[in-house]
Design a protein that fits this description.
The structure holds 2 protein chains of 2 kinds. By secondary structure, chain A is mainly beta. Helices cover about 5% and strands about 55% of the residues of chain A. Chain A is built from 4 helices and 38 strands. The chains are: A mainly beta, B mainly beta.
Chain lengths: ~525, ~400
């Protein structure tokens, strides 16, 4: 008896203490809503600004930039090295008293700005790097001044540094840099009539608190200055002639991102390119090509318009002190003067553009009164104002959905999915569901019965009442098994077709409510 | 593993708690030898249910397929309100038998003890059983009444200091409670209506959820802390023994969460913003928002106090009746009654058998065997002997105790 009790105890102890090696599992039948969503026009059109008109209809307002220009288009200030070598013209050794200034060397320096003739420039960033090699056997002070400048405090740019004593055999070397950020330059030189020119001065003194020092013609001071990475913020004068070519560039076009196929016929549209020239100089722009590319279908449609391949003159901007009024130029594309409707109806996801720009094509016609703010130059935008009044034919919207089935997920044997729809759009909608293989490709489809019917409409094809429909999707055991074991991703596709009347207007309050309900046989398990 | 368990058995012997033979044995200790110390250990494990049979419970606890036939069999036994529980308790105690810390009370000796208590219990409706094991489809256009139901999982350790009378007629102990884990789901009302075709689920919910730190659940985790008292005394001419274990409270403050809500929820699916640009993350986040909001807030729980009243043994009778009562508060426990007979086979051996009803199970047969020598007492009991051998039994249980005097 005791032995048996012991046995039972041991067995129970093992059961309590040992890890389970098998799941507890059972089957259940679940009938439940899973997901609900409301589709509005905002969900169907990507990254656009939808504006509501007075009659509650919608206009799609989309803009993308053509990037016709970048900062390299304008003159650059090259790194400029200035090297000075000061010897002493004494035949015999001379004694220099403390504080004695033994070098005073004003000089004019010129930026090499090609054909630009700049009178005034503000520096965004940049610096002067220096290296001073001294053979003077006493500490000296080096003062560097750039005349006709203003730093951020309104002072002339002037810097003084201390240079330790050196010898001919062991000269002292001092290196460092001066920051030029925010410094403005008058580039008219000492006479006020020059361009790209600034006047500087180097002074070198013996330390006033030091000792007298003896130098001869064998002693020298070497001064190296280098202007590094000068990036202007503003320039005034003649900006010179330059040209810039951009592209072909693939611009992402997201208006129809959600649409994966089908045909759309647009009733009317307003599409134009607007160029704003913030530069105080005349310019020209040429759009060599604008091609609408639909990467899903492989179709490309090139814009055909008189502006394509021809220079467009851009008037100069006006600086009123507090702001700049750009010179604006607008090119309109209509169905009469171009094939823009075909460009849009191609449902492209990319626009390929190629743009050229020229500055001062007529030379210095402003007598040196050009100006340029480097952070605001030329903007060219492609605008689409599209009243949503259209005909849709098999317009396909797709979404890949991962059902998140993993090894530890409770498996579903089979399911009947019901989609309850309340449709307030004047479109029919067909729902399709595809199984995807491990590589994301199409594997199989699921049988779908039913259609989401269009809402009821009046004589003007405006929705009067929404219509309820039910779509059933059967997921049999073999296909559920594929989802459980191979790939749990499915592709949901909804295909829209406008009803028979042409050019249906979309109103702001249109919607499609979808509710997904499952009736499934599943296994519950845990370990 | 079996070897380990045998060694463990040799060390931890049954404290038959409510059926303990300690009074009988202590009276038979030879008077000429007076031990100085006593070390005791006890172990108790049992599970049971008022409706789930052993076959079902075994699969539930240890894995396997719950077949439709098995579900149906249990459904036939399921009542309006049902219970299921698992208990696993063990402990050890050291008693100084000669010295006392309080000279004014020389008859009281002190003891130091350790105990561990695990209790998983539930009470649930028939509808809840059906919903969990069959799914909600059978409730289409019907209401599943899931309340009043309760699920409580409680695990804690205690370190006890106490005083016990030399003749073991009375003892009192105070314990530091070290909370490992507490999960409490108390659904006062939970009515689930499944609309036709499953287009909506309507839930009328009134419930309380209390959860201790989910990241800290191990042995001596200190997720919570508290105080408990143990008390034991003989009464009514020493014919009965009353024992109260774990009368006290635990405070769960560290990363505890709490919800007490009363709401009607109409579930029409997890709402997603745009089906054409959704993600699994959006779905899961929105689904989580449907659940009762859990606030970061501590809470206090009363300990699952055990109250036992047993008839003491008469050392002069070889065969005598045994009977008693046991109840465990806050544990979905039914008042438990037992009655049986005990027989002294020899000076060293004693056997007993009883019928018990209550706790987590219905009527069941228990048997036990006990041994005593000069300085050793030990016993083992199958508290649900019938359940061990029948699939239709409704639980299992063993308890063991041992004492070594030196």
């Amino acid at each position: 008896m005791m032995k048996k009790a012991l046995f039972i105890f041991v067995v129970l102890s093992i059961l309590f203490s040992c890890k389970r090696d098998e799941d507890t599992r059972w089957d259940v039948e679940i009938l439940s809503p899973v997901v609900k969503t409301r589709l509005t026009i905002d969900d169907l059109v990507g990254d656009s600004i939808l504006s509501v008109n007075a009659d509650n209809s919608i206009t799609l307002d989309y803009t993308f930039g053509l990037s016709p220009i970048d900062e390299d288009f304008f003159f650059e200030v090259p790194d400029t090295a200035l090297k000075l070598d000061y010897g002493f013209p004494f035949l015999s050794p001379v004694s220099l008293a403390p504080g004695f200034q033994f070098i005073s060397d004003p000089a004019e320096n010129e930026f090499n700005l090609n054909d630009a003739k700049i009178e005034y420039m503000e520096i965004e960033s940049g610096k002067i790097e220096y290296k001073i090699t001294s053979e003077i056997p006493e500490k000296t002070f080096y003062t560097y001044t750039i005349f006709k400048t203003n730093d951020r405090s309104g002072n002339v740019f002037r810097k003084t540094i201390s240079v330790p004593a050196g010898t001919r055999t062991n000269p002292s070397i001092t290196v460092g840099s001066f920051n030029l950020n925010g410094v403005s330059f008058d580039l008219t030189g000492s006479t006020g009539t020059k361009f790209n020119t600034f006047e500087s001065e180097v002074l070198v003194n013996v330390d006033p608190a030091g000792n007298s020092v003896t130098v001869s013609n064998l002693d020298s001071v070497f001064i190296e200055n280098k202007l590094i990475g000068i990036k202007p913020k503003y320039a005034r004068g003649y900006l010179g002639q330059s040209s810039f070519s951009e592209g072909p560039t693939n611009n992402k076009f997201t208006v129809f991102d959600q649409i994966k196929g089908g045909i759309i016929d647009i009733d009317s549209l307003e599409i134009f390119t607007e160029v704003k020239n913030y530069v105080g100089a005349e310019a020209q722009l040429k759009l060599n090509q604008l091609i609408s590319v639909n990467s899903q279908t492989g179709n490309s449609v090139a814009l055909s318009h008189t502006s394509i391949g021809n220079w467009i003159n851009l008037n100069r901007g006006t600086d009123v002190g507090t702001s700049i009024f750009p010179g604006k130029t607008r090119v309109d594309y209509t169905t009469q003067n171009s094939n823009i409707d075909l460009v849009i109806e191609n449902l492209s996801d990319e626009m390929v553009t190629q743009v050229e720009t020229r500055l001062n094509p007529l030379g210095n016609i402003s007598s040196g009164n050009d100006f340029l703010y480097f952070d605001q130059v030329v903007e060219a935008d492609f605008h689409i104002k599209l009243p949503l009044r259209l005909v849709a034919n098999n317009l396909k919207f797709q979404q890949k959905i991962d059902l998140g089935i993993q090894e530890e997920t409770n498996p579903v044997y089979d399911a009947l999915i019901s989609i309850y729809a309340e449709n307030g759009f004047p479109f029919d909608a067909e729902v399709q569901l595809f199984l995807l293989d491990e590589w994301g490709g199409f594997y199989d489809s699921l049988v779908v019965t039913g259609l989401i019917n269009s809402a009821n409409t009046d004589a003007l094809n405006k929705v009067t009442t929404p219509v309820n429909s039910v779509v059933k999707i059967a997921v049999p055991e073999n296909k559920m098994n594929f989802l459980n074991t191979k790939n749990s991703e499915v592709m949901l596709q909804i295909v829209f077709n406008t009803n028979s009347l042409p050019h249906t207007t979309i109103y702001r309050d249109y919607y499609l409510d979808l509710k997904l309900v499952t009736d499934m046989n599943a296994e519950i398990k845990y370990r | 593993m079996i070897k380990t368990n045998l060694l463990f058995l040799a060390f931890c012997l049954v404290n038959l708690s409510s059926y303990s033979q300690e009074d009988t044995v202590s009276n038979e200790t030879k008077p000429e030898w007076k031990p100085s110390y006593k070390i005791e250990a006890n172990f108790e494990a049992n599970f049971g249910s008022t409706d789930l049979n052993n076959e079902f419970i075994n699969v539930l606890l240890f894995g396997g397929q719950i077949t439709p036939e098995l579900k149906d069999k249990v459904l036939n036994r399921t009542n309006k309100r049902n219970r299921f529980g698992v208990e696993l308790n063990y402990g050890a105690r050291f008693t100084e038998l000669t010295d006392t810390l309080f000279p004014k009370f020389p008859e009281y000796k002190y003891y130091i003890g350790f105990g561990s208590f695990t209790n998983l219990s539930s009470s649930y409706t028939k509808d809840l059983y059906e919903l969990v094991f069959y799914g909600n489809k059978r409730f289409e256009n019907e209401t599943a009444r899931l309340g009043k139901s309760n699920f409580t999982s409680y695990r804690f350790e205690k370190i006890t200091f106490g005083l016990t009378k030399s003749d073991e007629s009375r003892s009192l102990g105070v314990s530091l409670i070290i909370g490992d884990q507490f999960s409490g789901f108390d659904f006062n009302q939970a009515d689930l209506f499944t609309h036709i075709d499953g287009t909506h689920l309507t839930i009328d919910y009134d419930g309380k959820i209390r959860l201790s730190d989910a990241q800290r659940r191990g042995f001596m985790a200190f997720s919570g802390a508290g105080i408990g008292f143990d008390f034991e005394t003989l009464f009514y001419k020493k014919m009965f023994r009353a024992k109260i274990t774990n009368l006290g409270v635990a405070f769960w403050k560290r990363n505890a969460t709490y919800s007490n809500s009363n709401d009607q929820i109409v579930f029409e699916g997890v709402e997603i913003n745009n089906v054409f640009s959704t993600s699994e993350e959006e779905f899961l986040n929105n689904a989580e928002e449907l659940l009762p909001e859990m606030k970061d807030r501590g809470f206090a729980t009363l300990l699952p106090t055990i109250v036992e009243i047993d008839r003491t043994m008469n050392p002069d009778l070889k065969t005598q009746p045994i009977y008693g009562f046991r109840y465990k508060f806050f544990s979905n426990y039914l008042p438990q009654f037992y009655g049986g007979i005990q027989h002294q086979i020899s000076d060293n051996f004693l056997v007993r058998s009883d019928l018990t009803w209550g706790g987590y199970s219905g009527l069941r047969l228990g048997i036990g065997a006990y041994y005593q020598a000069n300085n050793i007492r030990a016993g083992v009991q199958a508290t649900n002997f019938s359940g061990m051998f029948f699939n239709n039994g409704n639980g299992n249980g063993v308890s063991a105790f041992g004492a070594f005097l030196f």
